[in-house]
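Subgroup meeting minutes
Present: P.N., E.W., G.H.
Scribe: E.W.

1. P.N. recapped why we're keeping a running log of single-chain structure predictions: easier to compare across weeks, and new members can see raw inputs and outputs side by side.
2. G.H. added today's entry (154 aa).
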Amino acid sequence: MLRAVLKKNLKIWEDCLLHVEFAYNRVVHSTTNFCPFEIVYGFKPHTPMDLLPLPLQEQVKVDAAKRAEFIKKPHDDTRRNIEKKSAQYAKQANKGKKKVIFLPGDLVWLHLRKDRFPQLCQSKLSPRGDGPFKVLEKINDNAYKIELPLNIPM
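Output recorded in log:
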């Protein structure tokens, strides 16, 4: 955004930084459906002057409980929007994947990574997998104890 504002006047970037920051913080984010100003302050300022504190004689007495509720509502809405968007991203990322769970006694193939098994992965043309190996114990859905032969070090 800063590059678009500056164009070829690279020496004035410090002067433009505050304006770009204000403009960025006024834009509604697609995940939260709020702009950062709304989340932090509870309202969307039109100008930077709206962010300045009011003089003491002009400040309006607001009940603390009402003010806290006023600030909590956007935070709760933001949390719900983020959780909803995260669920949508997870659904899209996991589309077409099936969950595979192994039980003790099942036979599995292992992917031999170069950093874990350097002596077995010396050539690009050698097989990337080895097995089948027996599952000894399920730790969780992504971790298992496998019975490895003695010639494959862990």
